[in-house]
Amino acid sequence: MSPSLEEMSLEELWQLFPIFLREHQTEWKDWYEEERLRLLSFLPAKQLVRISHIGSTSVETIWAKPIVDILLEIPKAADMVVMRDLLLQNGYLLMSESQGRKGFHAILDVGVGNGASSKYLKMHFPDSQVLGIDISTTAIKSAEELSELGLSFEVKNIEKTNLPVEEFDLITAFQTHFHWSDLTQAFTELKRILKPDGTILLACEWSKLAYYQPDFRKQEKLGNYLTDLDLYLIYSQRKEQWILYKIMKK
Predict the structure, then answer these.
(1) Contact 208, 175 (CB under 8 A)
(2) Per residue in 17-73, pLDDT tens?
(3) Fewer CB within 10 Å: C terminus or N terminus of the chain?
(4) DSSP code for 240
(5) Strand ranges (DSSP E) for 13-119?
(6) Taking a C-beta distance cutoff of 8 angstroms, is the pair 118, 143 a contact?
(7) Residues 133, 212 within the same domain
(8) What is the rounded CA–CA span in Å between residue 106 and residue 228?
(9) Do 178 and 204 contact (CB within 8 A), yes or no?
(10) Helix (H, G, I), strand (E, B), or coil: what is residue 131?
(11) What CATH number is given to the structural domain containing 67?
C-alpha cells in the first residue's frame, strides 16, 4: 500500500513532484485567484486579515516553479486549531505540524547592527514576524538590505521604543545589552512590550560582561536586580567564552 502524502519523506515527494523552472505564466495568477475564492468560501471573514499571492510565481520577471504559494494571515486572537480543521475538512493537506515546540508570533531583536542576527531568527522561525531595531540610522540602513516578508528594521532607542504594550513573544539582544546607557530603563521598556508569557534572551561574550558589568558576573546579583524590576531570571548558561540569560516576567 502506497504511503499518503503526509507520510512521504522529502525525497519521495521530490520524486513525485519534480522541481523544474518555467518562464512566467499568466495562468499562475488565475490559479491563485481560484484558490483565494475557494478559501473565502469557507473561512470566516472575521478570522482573516488578508490572503496574498507570494513567492516566485507572483513575480512576472523571473522564472519559477509552477507551484503557487499563498500566504493566509489570520488575527492574533484567531483559534489556530479551528482554522487548521477547516482547511483539512475542505480538502487541504497538513504536511507539517510541530508538536511541543513553542511558536513565536512576534520577535523583537535589539541592537541588530547589520541585521545578521535578525536574519538568523527569521530563518529559524520562518512563521514569525521579526522586527530588528537599532539606535544607529547607519546600521538600520545596512540591515534593511536583508528585509523580506515578515522581517523588517526600524531605528529605535531601547529605552523608549514607542512599540505597543505586550506585543512580543520573544525579545533577543546579542552582544548589546552591556552598552545600554540606562539599563534599568531599558529593562523596564522590555517588560512593557513583552507578552505576559514572553521570553527575553540576552547573550554576549563573558569578557564583555566582565568589563562593562562586573557586578553581574554573579548570577545572584543579576537575579536580585531583575527581581526589583518584576522580572525573573530563569537561568544563565555559560559555554566557553559566551553567556546566555533567559528572563521572563514575574
Answers:
(1) yes
(2) 555 678 889 999 999 999 999 999 999 999 899 999 987 888 888 887 787 889 998
(3) N
(4) T
(5) 50-54, 69-73, 106-110
(6) yes
(7) yes
(8) 26
(9) yes
(10) strand
(11) 3.30.460.10
